[in-house]
Structure formats: C-alpha cells, structure tokens
Amino acid sequence: KHRSEKDFKGQKHRSRDKPKRNEAELFIAKSLQGFLDVDEQQRKTLDGRNLFIEDRKGDAGKLRYERESSASVPKYRRLGYGEVIGFPTGWKLTHGSSAEVVLRGRKQSRRYTSSRIAAELKAGPSRRLVVPPQPLVTLVTEDYIALPASRSKGHESSGPRPITSFEQNERKDEESDDSSSSLSISEDEGPDEYTVPSNPTSTKITQLTSTVTYNPTSIESWLERIEHSVSTALSAHPTNKFNSILLATYLRSGSLLWPATKLEEEWERALEGVSREGGTLEETVDLWMDWVEWRLKAKGVEGLEETTERIQPVTRREEERLQRRQLGKQALDAAKLRFLWRISAGLAEAGYVERAVAIFQAQIEMTLFAPSSLSNTSFASKLEAFEEFWESEAPRIGEPGARGWCNSSTSQTTAAPPTSTVVPSSTPREVEEDSDPCVKWGAKELGASRRILPLRTADEDEDPHSTILFSDIRPFLWDISSSPPSSSSNEYEDVRILLVLAFIQFLGLHIPGLSAHLSSPSTNHSSPPSHSDSIWSDTRFHSGSLVDHVFAFSKKSREQDWDVVNGVVVARELKEMSPWGVVKEWGFGGVTGSPLEGYGAKGEGRMWDAADVGALGVVKCEIIRNLFQAICKATKSLILDLHWLAFEAAFGVKQALKVSKSILSDHRDSLPRWSAHARLERIRGRVAEARKVYEASLLSRPLGIGEDTRPGAAKMWWDWAEMEWLTGDTSAAQKIIIRAVEGSASAGTISGTVLLKTKKALEVIVRERVRSGEEGVKELVPLVNLQAVLELLAGANPEVALARYQLDFPLTLPPHRQRCLSESLALASTLLLFHHTHSLRATAPPSIFRQHCTSAVRPWPSNTIILGMWLESEKGETVWGRVRTTIREVVVPEWSGGVVGEISRAVWAVCKERVGLAGSEVERARGVLARALNGQRSKSCVALWLIAIELELGMGDTTRAEALLYQAVAECPWAKGSEVFYLTSFFSFIDDSGADLYLLPFAPRLRGAFKDAEMVQWTNGMLERSVRLRVEGVEDVLDRYMTEEEDNGSSDEAGKGASGDHELEELVEERRRLMPY
C-alpha cells in the first residue's frame, strides 16, 4: 500500500531538507516504483549527463601510491534507496559487513561470514553434478529445464518446478517459503540421481580430466593426474600409448602396488609395444634405462647379462635404420655408452669392481686403439680378434706400460704381466687389539676391497672374481664408432672422448655435467636434459674424505667452542665459511671456459683440487695418469689435454707445467694449449711469465679478432685482458682490447673516439658471429666479455655492461647449444660483477650484484659457482629467511616425487647447513636428505644413503643410523658398496680404506648398535643375496663368536642368578626415587 499525503503532515520541514530531484532521478524513481514502463524510445532520449559524473583529470597520485585517494574521488549518493537498476521489483541492496542483494520481505539467509557457514566452506563441497544418463530437456519447444523434485523434510513436490522470471506481484508467504527452500539444498537431504558425494580430490581430478580431454597430448597434465589414474593416460590418445615418460612413470607407480609377477608382465608388455611401434632408441632410451634399474634391483647382477642380450638387438635395428636413411649415429653411440656405464656401475656397486674396470678397459681398447686392418670388418670379427689380445695378458689401458691394442703385438709381448695391482691387506694395530671377531673380519674385508684392476692368471689369489677372462666381459661390449663425427667438429660431441671421461668419472673423479650431457635429447628436441643418471654415476661422495668436507664434525672435535678473554669464558667467534665448497657442478661443454678456470683469479674453485684427487687413493690416481698418458698421445684431443693439465694441477702446478711443456712440444701452433699454459702460470702467481706467453702467441700475427681465424684467438685475447684487469692495470687492459680489435697498438693516451670506434667494431663482430650459426658462436662468450669489460673501464655503470650479455640466438642454433651458451653467458656476467665489486672493490650498489645473482640462480640452480656467488651477495643482509626460501623453492624444490634427480643440488643444500658447527640446524639437513631419499628415483642412490648415515653417526644417534642402514639395504639390495668408503667416516684408524654398505655393521662405530642375533641375521642375508666377499671365514668367525658367548653365558649363569634379584631391587628403588619426574 502507498502512503497518502496525510501521513506526511506530522513530519515538519522534512520536504524542505529533501533536495530537489532532477529529470533523470525522477525517471529512475518512477521506473523502480513500477508506475512507468520503460521502452527503447525512452531509453534513447534519456540524457545521462545529470546521472553520471565524467572525470577527465583522474587521480595524479595513483601511479605513485598504487591506490586511489578518497579526497580525489567525486562525491556521490545512492539513487533508488537500495533498489538495483536492471533488476525486477523486489530486489534490494543491503549493506552489512559486505554488500548483498536480497529479496524485499524475505527471510535473510545465513551470512557466509558466520562460523557455521565458514566451517562448511572450509570442508568443501559435499556433492557434485554428474552427466545424467538421459537428457533433461526432451522437447526443444519447452522453455524450462526439469530438475529433480525437492525431497526436503515435510515437503513433497509433485513434479518439476518451472524456473521463470520473478513477477512484480510477490507470491504468498507460504509459496515464497516453499520456493525459497527449493532453491537451496537442505542439510538433511540425501543425494539425488544427478549428484554424487564430492571432495577436494575428486574436484581436482575433474579439473585435470577436463584439461586432458581438450589437450590429450599435454604430458604435464597427465603426470599430475597420474597419481590417481595412471593407466587412463596411456589409452587416451594413440601417441600416449608408447610414450616413454608416461610408461616409465606408470611402471614406477605400479612397482609400489603390484606383485613381482604382474610387474614383470607389465614391463614385458611395455618393451614389446615400444619395439613393435618402431620408436627410435633415442626416444625410448630412458625407458630402457629404467628397465635396467628394475632388473638390477629385482634380479641383482645375475640379470645384467640377460639385460644386455635384450638391448643389443634393439641397437642393431636402430643402426640399420640410420644407415638406410644415411643419418649420423651420434645419439645411438651415446645411448650405448649410457648402457655400458650403468651396467659397469651396477657391477661395481655389487662388489665386482675388477669386472667393471675390465669392461671399460676393453671398450676403450676396441674404440680408440683398434687396428686399421679391422676398420671395415663386422663387430663379431673385432671381438674374435680382440679376444686374442685380451687372453695374451698384455698391459691394458690404464696399466703401466700400456700402449694400446693397435700398438701391441701378441707375438712380441715379452714383458711380464703387471702384478702391482695386488694390494696387500694389512690389519691395523687398533683392530688387532679389538677383541670383537666381527670387527677384525670387517677390517680384513675392507683391506681386500682396495683392489681395482683385474689380476692375471699368474697372480696367486684365492678369489676367482679377481681374474677376469674375456668371456666374463664379452656380453657387455658395444659397437661404438671408432671415428670422430663428420657432421660437427665439436669435440664435446665425440663419443670416443666421452667414453674416456666416463671412465674417469667411474673411477671417482667427478666431471661436472657429463651424465646430463649424455642423457640430453637430440638437437631437434627443446626439452632440457635429464639429471636422473647422476643418481648412479655420481660416485664422488662414496669417499669418506669428501663427506668429511660436507659436514664439520672433524673440525668440531679439533676446535673448542669457547675461549677465555680476561678471565671470562665466552663463545668462540663463528667464522664465515666460504660459499664455495666441495660440491662442484655446472653444464658440460666449456661452460667455465676450461677445466683450469673457477671463480677466483688464481683458479680457485676449478674442477679438481687437492681434496678431489686426495679422495681417490694412490691406485686410482696412477690409473688415471696412465690413462691420460696413453690416450692423449694417440688421439691428439684438446679436451683430454686440458683435463690432463687440470688433473696434474690438483697435485701441484709445477708438475702440471712440465706436462704442459711436453704437450706443447707436439702442438706448437695450438692457441688453446698455450692459453692453458699461461693459465697455469697465473695460478702459480707468476703474472710476468703469463704475459710473455700471451705476447709471443698473439703479437706474432698483427691481425684483429675479426680477421684472425685461428681457433682460440678470441679466448686468449680475453684471458690476457682479464689478467691485466684483475691486477689493477686498467690502462693496459684497455690497450689490449683495442689492439685485439684493430690489430695494432695505439700510441699515447686513449681518446674517447678510439674507445667508441672499438665498441662499434666489437658490436659488429658479435652480431656477425651470432648470425653465422653454430660455427660462429664457439668463441662468442670471450667477445662479449671484452665488450662488457670495455664498458666498465670506460666508466659506465654495471647495468650497461650487463646489457651486453642479452643476446638473441638464431632459430637454426640447436637447443642444446643454446642452453650451453645461455649458461656460459649467465656465469660470465655474474663473474664480471663479482670481480668488479669484490675482487677489485669497485664502488657499486650491493643491490645490483644481489639482484643479478638472484635472477641467475633461478634458471641455473645446478651451477654451484653461481650458487656460491649468490650466497656471497646475501652476506651481511641479515635476511637469512630469504636465502632459505630460495634454497627450498629453487635449489631443492619440494614436490611429490622428492628432490630433483640431480644429487649435487641435494648435497650442496646439506653442505650449506654446516652441520657439526655451533649454530647449525641439523633438522634442515635431515629434511633435505629425507625428501631426496623418498623420491622415486633418488631413493636408489647409494651415495645419499651413506651421507645420511654419516650425518646420524656424527650426531651420535646410532639407533637412527641403524634404521637408515636397514632402509638403504632394502632400497639397494644389490649394492655392497660401489666404492670404498675412505678415511675417517667409519674406521678412523684406517688411512686408505673405509666401509661398504653391507659392511657398516662390522665397523666399530655401528657394532654396538647391533646385537649378536642381528649380526647373525645380517650375515645370513649377505650370503643369501650372493654379496661378494673377498675374505673367507665369516661363517666360522660368527660360529666361534657365538660359541664363546654361550660358554661364557653358561659359566656365569650361577653368578647372574644370585645377583639378579639385588640388581632388580636397586632398579626399583631408583625408579621410586625419581618419581614423579
């Protein structure tokens, strides 16, 4: 009902205070009250200038403060008194804690801000809609959708209710209540035929299902959904059925649920399907590698020979396909090398080190030293010819006096077979004094485990596995191409060189990025390389001396945590540790320039140092030195020569200089080798001698960088300019850069015109090198470094110098080459800022270096040099939470599969916690190791298990170390210990030996955690799993030990019975005294 004019008589002056409304306001008021029907003509003639406010100026401070100011917003007032424009009559806008549109006169529903509604929202939806079996709307002419009848309490609807627009005249109260209840679902209402119970997991599955329905080839979405229904992904699209990534994930997930027979059937079905579909080995090599892993865990070393017999026909078919299409075999040879390396690593982990080393020796002999008369023969003929050389027991590669297969004639071999590889096993005096027979036997076994090279038949040894016959290694040899690749002159792609480097890393000398380079996809693939091979190929942390650098337990025992100052005991000052540690990892392919370069001016942080070679032991160092001496002279490889110099420089620079001179006697015109020689002089601190090498090599030809076509010219010019720049002679550095560009020395003072001319010339050279493709970008990084340093020497800001490193590569450049160049440029730019701000102490805001390091860490979290400079930039900022967040989110991210497959990043994160020193947080280190050991791939890494056990032993928790040891043996049942665990990790009194995985209970530090019955069970498990034991008598030792214990127990039984009650009474009294605490 409308109120009359009499109702307003008592309200004095109310109409006076009410402002006069204009035409637009009257029009809106009448429309809302229902007195006027609005049509299109009236809407067109309505003038909105009095209704809306036009603000042409805006708020000038919005860009500065990022929000509007209440003072700059025009004043306004609501029209219609709560009515909503465009809605039918009856809807009202109410304001409480938040705005809400409700029906006038209806009971307001509960607010979603109430505690009850908030609890329901937090619990998630209780049901979700599903597709009905029959369409709800059968006739097109119907103007409504039939929904199921409401089944709430006290109400039965006879049929579907039509949904129409609200009428202006409201219904009766009862009907409105019924209709309002029909719009919402009662709490007690059961599920109807079109709803099913819902939860957050089902909602996520529904979202992922809709994603993969529209894009069935989205591998990322399938991998996220694989935890719930992995088998659906394989049958959703024909291209997914034999996708190696999906199959590997499917089989790894099934290994946790299926029995052994079903898992083997699934593997057979997957491999047969991949072979039947004709997929290339390059696309399916990761699936075959996972199969080798499964066979090794399920069958042990006995199944490796069968594994090779299954893979070799696949490689032969792939080789025939490449020959028909006249394609290169580079990717195929890389896959063969991965198979050989994995099988050798599995044999070594099981204790058959001599057999694994013999496989590498034979493969290198057949690949690099095959006689020229056998170049066109079949692989079977080569094996027959090589068997005669092997059985002659002539010196093999890596042994003293070895010259190679092609240089050794079996009829002229008169030298005696080498017997120096037999290492006598001696028991230390501390072990002899120990009365425990288990500890004594363990020390003897460890001493015998130090043998690396296989013995000859003339050697007297009772162990039959020490002498390797050709029939023992023949099934594991591969037909790898013995000629360098013709399509590319890059030695980093030569599988022959990679074979030698793989053998060096197998012996324990880590080569950063090698395993990831071998597993990288082809040049036509843009995905990043996989780091899963580092789980078994990274064996450097099997050495106890390197693990000793990861933790600081030894430093804690040698140094006291307190000091006395003027008679007052104070805590010792915590010294800042270097951000660069023993963990070294970066991309393969010349990312750092050469193996002799690191982060420091004198080669600090280079690939190998004294700690790396000291962890190998004398025997392995001699094998590697003999390997370099034989192969470098035969192959004339630049990469192997540089690695040889880096190896000798780890022992001493003076010794490396002698080797460098012998190499230069055969390569007098090689600029990279002369540059390496000058680098050794710089490491030694003799700058004047290095300057003489640069002058003699570069000034002999007065040509600029653009005209000098000699390989390594630009790199050598940059090394010279960098040396003068880091010594503080900026004028000499400028003259060297100008001379490198123009080809002649500039006399007098350098003018701005000359600098500008040099900058323009360098820009042109860099632009031409980028456009020339893969051949022109080989020395691109040194040229960009010259540009950046010239900007800094001219007085420019660091941002201008960093802008030089922003390059756009052509599309013709292979993706793997782009990744290598991008990482090289990121490392070079970060090192430039590091030397500018830290080495030279130049004036620059610290935020520039910190922000650049942070931006470089995210795309390259595996580069430990960049990680070290990033930690250096964060020093003194007192924002350690930011550092920990970056480590947790970028370096070792947390996800359902555990830590990223690369082991170096996990160990680096553990190393940065400085466990063992005051103020360290051991729980963070345990968290990183726990995430790594829970991953599907990384849980089979022996090195991570050894590091985790050493952490608990260092903290004095033998119970937790024992539990971890049981888990390690369960996850790696084949692994007796891939290498010898050296130095003080477990046997602090043994200098060159340590403990294998199965021998840890026999170590003094863990012997007390195992009872006698557990030692018997542990030994029986070793015998049942056919773990190789070099020293006999473990059964006799345990039997005698148990017999002595029984005798001692029977003799002391009477005394124990008499004193047992007294001890029990004392225990009860002590417990009463301590109560209630």
What does this entry look like structurally?
The protein has 1077 residues and is mostly helical. The protein contains 47 helices and six strands. The strands form three sheets. A two-stranded antiparallel ribbon has the order 1-2. A hairpin with a 3-residue loop joins strand 1 (91-95) and strand 2. Helix 27 (638-651) runs parallel beside helix 29 and helix 40 (903-911) runs antiparallel to helix 41 (922-933). The longest helix has 25 residues, at 815-839.
Give the low-pLDDT segments. Answer: 1-16, 34-46, 136-141, 150-196, 410-415, 419-425, 896-900, 978-995
What Rg is obtained from the alpha carbons, in whole angstroms? 39 Å
How would you sum up the major sheet? 2 strands, antiparallel
How many helices? The count is: 47
Strand content: under 5%
Strand order, main sheet: write it out: 1-2
Average pLDDT, all residues: 76
Structural class of the helices, strands and pairings? mainly alpha
Distance between the termini: 80 Å
Brief account:
By secondary structure, the protein is an all-alpha fold. It contains 47 helices and six strands. The protein has a two-stranded antiparallel ribbon. Strands 3-4 form a two-stranded antiparallel sheet. Strands 5-6 form a two-stranded antiparallel ribbon.
